Structure formats: structure tokens, C-alpha cells
């Protein structure tokens, strides 16, 4: 049962780790809205790395953000958190592969392997938390600008890249939680043998029986 839970947790963590790359590569983190526009000639969409524009003919043009320090603070923080999520996911996959009971890596010390697998679960949780914070922070700024009546710039809507990021975070958190819970279950191989010790009462009774069964050196006539 524990081996199945470890495999499921590894699968969820790996899929969540892959979806981080898909989310970062996706260009539609936010897309310009058509709310209140009668004629739309172009669409602007952005992610953490570039801004693109496409017209009604399907021709699009993308440009990278020119300066890191000129970007808003939430974009810089989202970049750092997503990169940290990739690093945590890499550590989580490595630790889980080493700590799985069905893996031959690390020998036959199942207690140590269980602790390593639990550390992998913690890394998966950190991966999911970092991804969730980055995606939610980015989405919060989109919705804040959208509902701000005094905002004069271009208003955007939430793009598909954010939904992929949210799915990645949920999978990583579920995988980490499943792995930590699975490592708390004690398998028969991890049970320490209990050394049975005979009670002192039994020892007294056996001594008493021995003394009663020992032959006497004096006969009954010796006391007459």
C-alpha cells in the first residue's frame, strides 16, 4: 500500500513539475480584454518574459522585456518564485526516487529511505506553494487593474497560462501531502523486533519449584 502511494505521489509531483515549464512557456498569462470595445484591431498578450501583439489578420509580433529593473515588482517576484518552484521540484523528484521502497538506490535501509522520501514530499509542497503564490499574485494584479475605474492603461483578462500554473500547484501540493502521509505508515520491514524478557515472578516460581524438587540429605527420622 505504501509503495502505491509513493508511486502516485511521484507521478503527481512529476506532472506538476512539467506543467511549470508549460506555464512559463505559454505566452497567454494575460490577454487584453474586449470589454467596452466595439472594434478590435489588435490583441495584446503577455507572460513573465515578453509582450506580444497580434492583429486581425493573424500576424503577431513579440518583444522581450528590455530591462529587469524596469519591470513591476510583482513580475520580478513571480519570476523568482517560479524558478524556485522548478528547483524545489527537481530536489523533490530526486529525493523521492531515492527514498522509494521499490527503488534499489540507497540500499535496504527502509527507515532512512522513508525519511528521504518524506523530505521529497516537503520539496513538492514547497514547489506547489511557490507556484501558487506566483500565479495568484500575478492574477490579483490583473483583476485589480480590471476593476479599477480610474486605471487609464490597457486592461487585461486572466490567460490560459495562469490556469496551467494553478493546476501545477494543486498537483504538487497533493503529491507532497500524499508522500508525507505515506511515509508515516510503518511497514513490517520497519518494525523493530521486541525482545521478550521473562518476568521476575516466573523466575521466582521456577526457583521455588526447583528447591521443592531437590532431594533432601536428611531423612524424616533425623527429626525424631
TrEMBL record:
GO molecular function terms listed in the Swiss-Prot or TrEMBL record: structural molecule activity
Transmembrane feature ranges: 7-24, 74-95, 116-140, 163-185
Q: Does the keyword Transmembrane belong to this entry?
A: yes
UniProt-annotated location(s):
Cell junction, Tight junction; Cell membrane
Q: Which PROSITE patterns match?
A: CLAUDIN (PS01346)
Q: Which InterPro entries match?
A: Claudin, Claudin_CS, PMP22/EMP/MP20/Claudin
What membrane topology term does the record carry? Multi-pass membrane protein
Q: Which domain of life is it from?
A: Eukaryota
Q: Which keywords does this Swiss-Prot/TrEMBL entry list?
A: Cell junction, Cell membrane, Membrane, Tight junction, Transmembrane, Transmembrane helix
User: What are its GO cellular component terms?
Assistant: bicellular tight junction; plasma membrane
**Which purpose does this protein serve, as stated in its record?**
Claudins function as major constituents of the tight junction complexes that regulate the permeability of epithelia.
Q: Which family does it belong to?
A: Belongs to the claudin family.
What name has this protein been given in UniProt?
Claudin
User: Can you name the source organism?
Assistant: Seriola lalandi dorsalis
